[in-house]
Write a structure and sequence with these properties.
It contains 10 helices and 12 strands. The chain is of the alpha/beta class. It starts with 5 loop residues before the first strand and ends in an 8-residue tail after the last strand. Bound molecules: iron/sulfur cluster. Iron/sulfur cluster (SF4) binds next to loops. Iron/sulfur cluster binds next to loops.
Length: about 325
């Protein structure tokens, strides 16, 4: 069997608050709690959850911008957490990230050429002429003409800025791209264009994506598999088709109920969750979703449900499925 491009095992990240005016000394925030998943080469894994569930902390741990408290991350067969800093710096050329707000990730002082050429200048020995040709080719790949080389971020629309951010992420020819809410700051019509562009680039360049989003609807057309996160844990993981056809965890069912159907004459019965995601500093006991769950049972308040396989390739952490339901 082929080794997945990315394999994450038992990943946990706990932040200790050693000082702080508003927090108690010694408080701990458990942002990620024992996550395990794989992503095969050429595949897209969607990570879905509300704000505060740990999605962006996961992205930063995978790039080793944060050092996880526990667990292992294997990328292309290499144990990332064991790599010397210089080797990890080179490895990051193969692992890129595109953020939600392109205007905060693109320096306002640089023009399109400088923004896209910056990684080439840092990591390659290309001449200026070679860089000009490469930047023009990257712009064409993301659907922008070469005159965008002279434009600064304030002269770009949100969609154009996200295309420049993508061209910059692709400059070093990565295998793996983390897309951290790449369309949430864009208008709905532009969102669809960027998703289509991401699908095309993935096919052309055989890219592997980790697509982070709070909106299940956004991931529907690009995700091969979807992992739903709640308060630092994966509560359900399966193929994109199964998540939409047969969501099993009550949290996934609630997320899906707020996603519009393609046929505007039909609608889903909306499940309104009470309250918000609890604080990871003081998470609820047992199943951390229990204060918001319509199906809560006594055992949910004391015992965290283990992940169970309910059908081939479909894993759910919920006491409702303990007897093979
Ligand atoms: Fe709801 Fe209990 Fe399942 Fe948690 S374990 S999602 S509280 S039914």
């Amino acid at each position: 069997m082929t080794e997945p491009l990315l394999r994450v095992q038992g990943l946990s990240m706990t932040f200790s608050r050693k000082s702080g005016f508003f927090s108690r000394v010694g408080e701990e925030l458990r942002a990620l709690n024992d996550l395990s998943f794989t992503i095969n080469a050429g595949e897209t894994l969607g990570i879905v959850g509300e704000s505060g569930c740990g999605k962006s902390t996961l992205a930063r741990c995978l790039l080793r911008l944060l050092t996880p408290t526990a667990g292992q991350i294997y990328f292309a067969g290499q144990d990332l957490l064991a790599l010397p800093d210089e080797t990890m710096r080179r490895m990051r050329q193969r692992m890129q990230i595109v953020l939600q707000n392109p205007f905060s990730s693109l320096s306002p002082r640089l023009n399109g050429f400088q923004l896209i050429a910056e990684p080439l200048r840092t990591h390659t020995t290309m001449s200026r002429k070679e860089m000009m040709d490469e930047v023009a080719a990257l712009l064409a790949e993301v659907g922008l003409p070469s005159e965008f080389m002279s434009r600064h971020p304030h002269q770009l629309s949100g969609g154009q800025a996200q295309r420049i951010a993508l061209a910059r992420a692709l400059a070093l020819n990565p295998d793996f791209v983390i897309l951290d809410e790449p369309t949430s700051a864009l208008d709905v019509s532009v969102q669809a264009q960027i998703i289509n562009l991401l699908i095309r680039l993935q096919k052309q360049r055989a890219l592997t994506y980790l697509f982070i989003t709070h909106d299940l609807g956004v991931i529907q057309h690009i995700g091969d598999r979807i992992a739903v996160m709640y308060l630092g844990k994966i509560v359900e993981e399966t193929s994109s088709e199964r998540i939409f056809a047969n969501p099993q965890h009550p949290y996934t069912q609630a997320l899906l109920s707020s996603t519009p159907l393609p046929d505007p004459s039909r609608s889903r019965q909306r499940i309104i969750l009470p309250g918000t995601v609890p604080s990871a500093v003081d998470p609820p006991s047992g199943c951390s979703f229990h204060p918001r769950c319509a199906h809560v049972m006594d055992q949910c308040r004391t015992l965290y449900p283990a992940a169970r396989q309910t059908s081939v390739g479909h894993h759910v952490s919920c006491h409702l499925y303990e007897n093979g339901a």
